[in-house]
Queue: 2 jobs
Job 1
Amino acid sequence: MSSPYVPNVDADRQEMLKAIGVSTVDELFKDVPKKFLNAEFKLPPPLSELELKEKLRQIASKNVNTEEYACFLGAGFYQHFIPSVIHHVTGRSEFYTAYTPYQAEASQGTLQSIYEYQSMICQLTGMEISNASMYECGSAAAEAALMACRITKRNKVVVLSTVNPRYYEVISTYTREHGIELERVDAASAVKLGQDYACLIVQYPTFLGYFEDLGSSVQTAHESGALLVAIASPFALAMYKSPGSYGADIVVGEGQALGNPMSFGGPGLGFFACRNEYLRQMPGRLVGKTVDSDGQPGFVLTISTREQHIKRERATSNICTNEGLVALATMVYIATLGEQGLRHVAELCYHKAHYAEKELSKLKGYSSAFNKPFFNEFVLRCPREPRLINEALFEQKIIGGLDISNIIPNGMLICVTEVNTKADIDRLVKAAARF
Amino acid sequence: MTPKNYKFTKEHEWICPDGNKGTVGITDYAQHELGDIVYVDLPSPGAKVAQFKRMCEIESVKAVAEFFAPASGTITEVNQAAIDEPKIINEDPYGKAWLVKIEISDPAELNNLMNSDQYDVYTAKLTKEMKE
Amino acid sequence: MRHHYVLPDISKPGKIGCSLPALDVPASDLPSKDALRQDLALPQVSEVELIRYFTDLSRLNYGLDTGFYPLGSCTMKYNPKLHEDVAVLSGFTSVHPYQPDKSVQGALQLMFELQGLLTEITGMNMTSLSPMGGAQGELANILMLKAYFRDKKDLKRKRILVPDTAHGTNPATAAMCGFEITAVPSDADGNLDLEKLKSMLNDEVIAITLTMPTTLGLFDPHIEEINQLVHKCGALLCGDGANLNSLIGKVKFGDMGFDCVQLNLHKTFSTPHGGGGPGSGPVCVKEHLADFLPSPIVAKQGDAYTFMTPSKSVGRLGSAYGNFGVIVKAYAYILSLGAAGMKQVSENAVINANYIKEKLKDSYYLPYDRTCMHEVIFAEKWQKAVGISTMDVAKRLLDYGFHPPTVYFPLVVEGALMIEPTETESKETLDAFIEAMKTIAKEAKENPDILHSAPHNTPVKRLDEVAAARKPDLRWKMTK
């Protein structure tokens, strides 16, 4: 039987081969040395659509999913409710089966969507310009570090220790071979930057959930002529003052929480925004508004000379494919909730997290690790190793918080969002009380 | 018309010398080859440049061209008008759209450049080769 | 149907696009006023207006499901619907990346098996699925090369050779890793200039990055010789698998001597491009590079799957494990094809490209008149003679209902028109495309104005890119 994805049948192929002037397909592979051609591939036999669906259903069922278990994990990836509008828009194949919008006249849907996305990211972060997206938060932060080095012509980057350690690892991967010195400093100590620092990277709120004084971080960076890179949580931006209003120079973050499933960590969305003066040093694609030959408004990819396909080894980044469809979903999500809805969800997260923190701290042996303002994540000191507590919670169909006992003794980073009901939180408290 | 009192490089920069000072720009041939110019990245006043070494970058929508200093020296002034409205480079490359002024460190270097007649012959030859 | 408005134009205070739950716990005190923002302004639109707005926008787009999309080097093949359905199973989407291993055995199994399948397909020894795009896969490769030679204490190698035909990501990536880049020219047949290559190879060269087939859509018949020359000088052969679609199920990268190769699941393995991502760019390597793979990879211990970090890993490329949602679709694709199905893919892709080449070579100048692989490249030479550019041809194609091919790439071909039909197009579609291309070639001579002013039937006419770049308008603004 022929494949549903290959429409030509034998008769077509014969006719085409004849038109080409060969008698066998392998004549078309004549440039391939014989010994490499028609290698043996040990692959499983093909499955029909019916069989494949069943197989994938079985594999999926081996994962515990957060629709069946209450989940209190965050640390960069968040479970939020996704209104139906989102997947009905992203599910339109005019969007998801299109390529990067190189031919503007046939891609106005994608281009206008990106323009809307760039605008909304600017509104959220309080910055002047945004690109069309990066892979995810870690690599966006890494690209921000590289960009700061280009702008300042300096080569030292300092990251506060309250930045998510995974982001630090990615920044390290990206900067290592670039001749950049990367330092991690304890946030508690007063940071002093020399004149050779390109940027200070902070997280807002921090990996540990609480807020540090962003204004003074900005001041510290600017006093030495360095840039301030803020890694921001998007839902916090719906409620708290924007990094832009504190004077941050580059703001990046993980956009997954805005309308996208966690999908075991990918695809995510690295949003990337900065001040207008840094436009030419930005990585990634940009969409701009212009007019057509009739004077009607339209959108195009623009300022492309920064990019790899034109500037090659002198490009601002090697990024090509980014996270287009995720950016679309994120934009549709922001539009669906609007300023009021986004604030409402942020406040739900805030109140529920604070309720959980209060109730858990009341338990014997448990305490909140920091007496500092937080948004929807907090560190709980547990009476025993978080690993053991999580195992017990798991039995109760609860996925507990992230075990960070390597950072805080018996510390567990707990995240609460609007999908965690009061009943879920009470169940968590009750189960935790057994230790 | 190629200005008679200017000197030219093979990379299509011009310099109009005035004692040990000089005004620098790109030629009409260069702006034509680039097409609509959208962005100019000029060095800052005080920067040192060396003859035939990288001086600035000029961008069209889909290309980036490097330009080189026609003489060694120090940048004394940059043309903000060319930065603000790059299209004047297309419109008036020998006049309004000068790019930088240089204090020339070694005026003898100017002997390495073409005069306007030589440059016209040179670009005519390039145009002919292109057509073939 | 046209869009003269953006979301703020249809926003009205008080509208919302979904209903939200009320608070079900006792409220806590909100933070102090100085911490909170009052300036957040975003569009407020009802659900019905949103859906109409985005449905309208989608109609301004041309996707693969709309029609033929022969973008060269992009492998715009059909995206099977089955994949979209299985990828949204809640056991795949509603899974947190930091859940305990025992609760994600299905995800780990799928990744483990895909690592194995891609390793077999490329003829390598080990695979990491971490990179989230082709360019990030290239970055992983170059980082591994650097780490490998540093580990061998061979520190002299600071140069990478990149063919002049290569995609821009190749030199851009090498530069990100601090390498000097030397372009290797191509010869008159479109192959790598072997004499030039020989003169460039020495103990300062770390590798050559080679796309195979090349970005000219040609298989370089000197691959064995290149392999020997490169390895003889102690350098490695680094593959760019962007064009794997012509070799899949037919030829293995490992057999040809490549030490590492990055794949594009969003090209060869049929996952949708999404208007510019998400993609996935796994890297497959030989044994000697396996310890350097980006972290993490999935290992099997007894019956259980677990993440592990290779002993000399170049590190993490992202906070999680790559674009898992994309990985699921590629896995489904491979299982749906099997070995024979895969061979059918490459063979049909190559037949389709050569068919177009043969049918159009009298209408468009063919700079390399030889058997091509998955794509064919024409140049604008004959049209240029009558004042028509490749861009004019591309824009006119839109009027005939086809997405244009890749244009002006690779840079070594003047006014390149790069056509990649893929295996998922029927002869009927190709014939209709060929007919349109021939008509355009005729129009170029007889009625050039209709090409200069093309497109005529699209939602917008030719857009002013110069104005866009001179005075960038990159966003709207809303205030409270």
Job 2
Amino acid sequence: MASTTTGLPPTPASPPQTSRAPRRSRKGTPYPGWFYLPAAVVYLSIFIVPTIVSFYFSLTRWNFSSSEFIGLENFFQFFREPALVKGFTNTIIYAVVTSGLKVVLGMGLGVLLASQITGRAYLRSVVFFPVLVSTVGVGITFTALMNPSRGLINQVLELVGIAGPGWLTDPQLALLSVALVDVWKGVGLATVIYIAGIVSIPPEYTEAAAVDGASPWQQFRSITLPLSWPATSTVVTLSLIGGLRSFDLIWAMTRGGPGFTSDVIASVIYKQYQAGFYGLSTAGNVLLFIVVTAIVIPLTRWLAKKEVAM
Amino acid sequence: MRPATRRWAGAVAILASVVVFLVPFAFIVLQAGKDATDASRLTFTWPENPQFVQNFLDVLATRDYILIIAFINSTILTVASVAGMVVLGAMVAFVLQRRVTRWTGLINFLVLAGLIVPPAVVPTIWVLQGIGLFGTMPGLILVEVAFGLSFSILLFRAFISSIPREIDEAAIIDGAGPVRLFFRVVLPLLRSVVVTVIVVQSVAVFNDFVNPLYFLPGEQNATVQLTLFNFQSQFNTSFNLLFMNILLITIPPLVMYIFFNRQIVAGLTAGAVKG
């Protein structure tokens, strides 16, 4: 901080060494607090205030004109109605499946595309491009490809003699099918994160290991895997946050169906909002908030600790 | 890897990438060129009666040219909200990085919270109604700015820490006030990260489906992602137009990617390599 002010025109009242930025009058600093103001107004009114009041409104029966305090009734309802419980468990399953697959496939593709493979530039672009495509567009496309009788996927399976399942119409399978499409769309991001992590590992390590006779698998196991931990940590965190909040892909592909078998908390929030149950919808939001913070915050702590330990 | 293995692995990977990643895109293009009955068969075949141009004109004309209105809406939304994120985000990041006060901890916490906490939907609508902006474009722009600020601030802050303070001091000695210092000296130095933020955030806002769905309801207000959603039910019998629509809204991100590939990847992998 002191170095900031040494170059300032010295104020006669105090010697330059002691005039630190925070102590000087607000007017004098070149980094004025009011720079926060425009962002703070938008952020507080549109994001923080709704988040805080959501805790109150989740305890009410609410239409915008009036609200009636009903205690924890909305939350009880969430854990009583099978449709809502399903949404809750599906959210966890969806987030775990998508982030697990993104880590495994992203790391595999990252190792492959960080190496000197032929066609590397093409492969990197083609794996990454789906990240930038409209989620709803991807959802509609795969809904067509996954059509049980006419879709391309089952047509191809039929050629090799397999009767393809009803990807989106089988209640057991619908959520997992959507999760697979989510992985298809998101694995490119995980891959580029892993590539950035892997190319930052000094090549001397693998060279030395190779000289000592380590097999490629041993090199991966003992060098690449532990030293790309920051990338793993980023991928896990990002895809868990994204997976728990996921809505648009599920909505575009199944609308939570068949029945409510592929509903997640975010789609329940939307359905209850449309049905006019604003209090219940907000309770869903609070529940999502609790799930996300209860999973993501301890996890990032743990990931950071492991990183330091290595 | 030995050169032979390299080529062999490359060939397998390219083949797999064609099947997994290019076939779905080829399917979109093929569907967009078919006639209605042909498209409804959902087969992966060349269009029997190619009518690419006809489908293009038809999809534009649907519902009184709603798609053109939607493209205009999406452009306004993207430009205005990304401009807001850049200017407001850079101002916050600048002061946050340069001056440590007892508020710094709280502000850092709030910025991180913006990345993690899912927005409370119905209370946000309630607030927007209270200030008379629910269902309006300015309201949606504010929402996008509020939800996108955190990510912008983090990217800016990381970059500003690499700009020497001596530059600030030189400008101050030359008589620049805070506003001149920021807008005339610091912001121009942020050029490369500004490009990154603009590209990444404009793709995100352009592709955003959830926020327009909640905060800007109504046919005439539709953004491009919502036209897809609205057409999905109407176009059950005309898949060709639905896929033509998908094709059209995929073009802007594709153009962005072709020109700003490096910035997009840099922006999205920030933080992956720590230390």
